[in-house]
Amino acid sequence: MSKEKILHAATRVFSEYGYHRASMDEIAQQAQVAKGTLYYNFPGKSQLFKAVVKAGFEDIMERTKTDLSSALPIKEQILRVLRHHLDLFLDSRHFAHIVFNEISNGIEPDVLDELKQLRREHLSFLAGILREAQCEGGIMRDVDADLAAASTIGMLESTCNYYLSHQEEYSREDLENFVFTVVAEGLFKSLD
Amino acid sequence: MSKEKILHAATRVFSEYGYHRASMDEIAQQAQVAKGTLYYNFPGKSQLFKAVVKAGFEDIMERTKTDLSSALPIKEQILRVLRHHLDLFLDSRHFAHIVFNEISNGIEPDVLDELKQLRREHLSFLAGILREAQCEGGIMRDVDADLAAASTIGMLESTCNYYLSHQEEYSREDLENFVFTVVAEGLFKSLD
Amino acid sequence: MSKEKILHAATRVFSEYGYHRASMDEIAQQAQVAKGTLYYNFPGKSQLFKAVVKAGFEDIMERTKTDLSSALPIKEQILRVLRHHLDLFLDSRHFAHIVFNEISNGIEPDVLDELKQLRREHLSFLAGILREAQCEGGIMRDVDADLAAASTIGMLESTCNYYLSHQEEYSREDLENFVFTVVAEGLFKSLD
Amino acid sequence: MSKEKILHAATRVFSEYGYHRASMDEIAQQAQVAKGTLYYNFPGKSQLFKAVVKAGFEDIMERTKTDLSSALPIKEQILRVLRHHLDLFLDSRHFAHIVFNEISNGIEPDVLDELKQLRREHLSFLAGILREAQCEGGIMRDVDADLAAASTIGMLESTCNYYLSHQEEYSREDLENFVFTVVAEGLFKSLD
DNA sequence: AATGAATGAGTCTTCATTCAT
DNA sequence: AATGAATGAAGACTCATTCAT
Lengths: 192, 192, 192, 192
Hints:
4 copies of one chain form a homotetramer.
Chain A: H1 2-21, H2 24-31, H3 35-41, H4 45-67, H5 74-91, H6 93-100, H7 109-137, H8 145-164, H9 172-185
The first copy, chain A, binds a DNA duplex through helix 3.
DNA-binding region (chains A, B, C, D): 23-42
Protein name (chains A, B, C, D): TetR family transcriptional regulator
Pfam families (chains A, B, C, D): TetR_C_24, TetR_N
């Protein structure tokens, strides 16, 4: 009960302020529990943060998995993965930022390792989908699937970030089209 | 004199610890000046950080510009831009991280705006080069140059990051080839 | 049932950490009861501590009494008292320390008074034995029995403490001989 | 300047409350400096405590040394040492208690080691004087000088403690006589 | 131009205690 | 008789910033 409330509040607060500016006081207040209750449910700030990030990764992976099905053509599956991540980066911009980026700053090393592990798992998940695409249809280029997953995530986040501060200039459809194009065909017509 | 030393030390310290974990004490110590001297030369921590980031952006832009010349074919110019940014992300990993990412966390809003402006200028610079490529040769796809610049930066950083924690699996050449392929041709052979 | 378990665990925990560093959490855990059970059986931490100290005093007094008997020559009785206290200070070093010394630190005043009373009773018990020695045989010097009891306890504890951190240099027998000599004859051959 | 004030205040506060109940807030208040000033001058609570204890040991040793001189007969020297320690235990009861006893509780292990070292040095100092007495005059029994020093300190403190809570029953002279007797001749007329 | 002692608001964390069940 | 979730006061410590020199 309290744990739920705390996790929700912590997600909000970490998203808004980032790890370091977020204070346990603020989280307790927003969760409407006493500060001690935070420490009754989580060992400390960094562990609470880890729980938030973990829930975030699990959520995006769960949502993506649910929407996929082997019945779909690989091409469609990848489009859906992209769309899910776009949703995440657009709807929960700040949350996505902490989940994908705040992982590197000044967090206790032991927790940091676990966070990196979570990120690795997420990338593996994406890479797995890409690898399938390579095996099956021969649709995909023969690039390293892990690098491809990593590069795609960074590309998506950066692009969404830019989009969000220039919303008047693009529509959501523009964004999707751009992303699909870049992923699919790259920037150049030909470089040879 | 002092200003130089402080700027160098601040770059080192911010790179190592990130904005929030970096302390003015540590910076003063590494710069071998008294703490008061920091405040004599810079109004405060966030302003000092801004100066560091600004110098960072200027450096990468300067280095890139120097290496370009209208004599070169556009294609080659873009390769060089990519290579310069790869260098930055690989050699000064942490520095690049704060320059490109720490900009969004929990920094005082007034300074944050100026930092965002700096990032915008850098993206404009890159977008400018891409736009040239579009005008001139018809080599490039007709995607939005600004989005393309933003997406490329994100892709580069994320890819380098992954590469740096998996160096045993890839060579630097692998990395370059991958990046060039992705930028040039995207991930798919065809999606239609 | 629970009370017993708690008392045992509390003794262990107080002995290991001292009064202030010992936590009710730790005690509950070691006693394998819920924290609430502690408060069901004892009014609070200081009262629990008092119970532990009381049991400690009673134990050493009981053990000593059991081993004495009016049949024994006074001299032998005193040797036995010394030996019992040596055993206590050596075998249950930390426990003895809290029983005899932690009594004065920063404990709630109300409980502190009761603890001091317990110590007083123990000293009275020892002084009683000494007084007997004085009456009966004329073996003992005509010093104040209460002061003598107090001084002896302090001497024993301090000596055992030193011994315990220099065990490689002395045998247990050395220690006993030293203590008996000091008690019996003092440090000097003659001071007149 | 501040350092002095802090050290004085800390001595007062630690003496009154013991290590754990003493709070940095209270010390800062009594020293009339801001809390930050405490940490500017001392790395932390335990280090501040160490400084207090160190000053205490140095003070008693200094005062004792000053009063001794090789011209005096050994017997007189030892009487003076005893008197100085009596003064300390009587005049600065609480301070002496923390200096000699609080050394064992729940202090950070690294600092604890240094504190133990200080105590060791003090005992060595006392043992040195005793050893002289053994060499020179043959006045002293052939007991281990280190054990003798340790036992004497414990005896003194314990006796003073008892005296202080029963002042109506003894005079200071009674106390001195008792202590001298015990040290000199022990408790028994003869035990053989 | 430079210093560094001093500050105090802000943070994380601990823990004895309570109480509804 | 026993539980354990929840509390909140209290405490140690950090650090950007100020200012007299």
